[in-house]
């Protein structure tokens, strides 16, 4: 009984420290966030362009439907609205991105 318990604790410890080690290595390499997606390294352009608008909304540069744009805009605004603790600047950029993408959609 004691042997089984010791083995179980050993396996759990190895898994915990192995995961912690992999996360530390990934962070050291400048890899990804917790969801496995890399962050976009760079700021905003002085004037909005189509590429930047697509990156902000998470849509393709070409071929995004109005329904897709509406859903993505709503999703981003729910996460970043100033009334819910988000940034007014980011909310402005999200709205600007939607307007930019709707021009060509």
TrEMBL record:
It comes from the Eukaryota. It is found in: Mitochondrion inner membrane. InterPro entries: J_dom_sf. GO terms for biological process: protein import into mitochondrial matrix. GO terms for molecular function: ATPase activator activity. SUPFAM superfamilies: Chaperone J-domain. Belongs to the TIM14 family. This is Mitochondrial import inner membrane translocase subunit TIM14. The gene is PAM18.
């Amino acid at each position: 009984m004691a042997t089984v318990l010791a083995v179980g604790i050993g396996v759990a410890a190895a898994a915990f420290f192995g995961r912690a080690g992999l996360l530390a290595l990934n962070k050291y390499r400048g890899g990804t966030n917790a969801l496995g997606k890399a962050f976009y390294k760079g700021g905003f352009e002085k004037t909005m362009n189509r590429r930047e608008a697509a990156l902000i909304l998470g849509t393709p540069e070409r071929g995004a439907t109005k329904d897709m744009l509406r859903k993505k805009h709503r999703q981003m605004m729910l996460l970043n609205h100033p009334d819910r603790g988000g940034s007014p600047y980011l909310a402005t950029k999200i709205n600007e991105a939607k307007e930019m993408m709707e021009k060509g959609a």
